[in-house]
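Standup notes, structure subgroup. Blocker cleared on the flavin mononucleotide input:
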Amino acid sequence: MKGIVVYDTSYGNTRKIAETIADTLKESGIEVDLFDVKNVKKLSGKDYDFFVLGSPTKFGTMSFTIKFFLGKVKSEEWLNKPFAAFDTENPENVEKSRIENKEWSAAEKIAEKLREKKMNQLLPVLKTLVLGQKGPLVEGEVDRTKDYARQLAAKLK
Ligand SMILES: Cc1cc2nc3c(=O)[nH]c(=O)nc-3n(C[C@H](O)[C@H](O)[C@H](O)COP(=O)(O)O)c2cc1C
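Run returned:
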C-alpha cells in the first residue's frame, strides 16, 4: 500500500496539515510520498494505490495551482482508486457555506472533481480552520487532522 499526499500552500498552514496526514499514515504502517504541488514533476496513478489532495481555500474554491494540477490527473490511471481531500479555510467561510447552503470549500470542490474522475472517496472531506490569511491554524486542528488520518488508515487497510 503506497499513497501520495499533494498540497498547495502560501503561508505553510496547508503544508502543516499535509505533513500531519502523511506522518500519521506512516505511523500506521502505510507508505506515503509527500509533495508540494509545485514540486510534482510527473504523477502517474500506476505508481500509487491512493491519493490525498489538499488546498488553501481561495475565493471559495481550490487554488489556481491545484486546479491546474487536477486538470493533468489522468482518470484512466486513477479509476476506482481511493482518495481523500482536505483544505484550510476561515471559520467565517464555514458559516457562509451553512447560511447560503452552498459549498465555498476547496476540499469539497476537489472531491467533486475526483469523483468525476470516478475515484472512490474514502471519507467526507477534512476542512481545517485558520485565522485570517496567514494563519495560524486554530487550536486543536492538528489533533483533529491526526484523528482523520487514523480513520483514513483504517479504511485503507
Ligand atoms: C487571495 C486569497 C483569497 C482567499 N479566499 C478565501 C475564501 O474565500 N475563504 C476562506 O475561508 N479563506 C480564504 N482565504 C484565506 C485562505 O484560506 C488562507 O490564506 C489559507 O488557508 C492559508 O493556507 P496556507 O498557509 O497553506 O497558504 C483567502 C486567502 C487569499 C490569500
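Discussed briefly. The radius of gyration is 14 Å.
Next: hand off to the docking folks.
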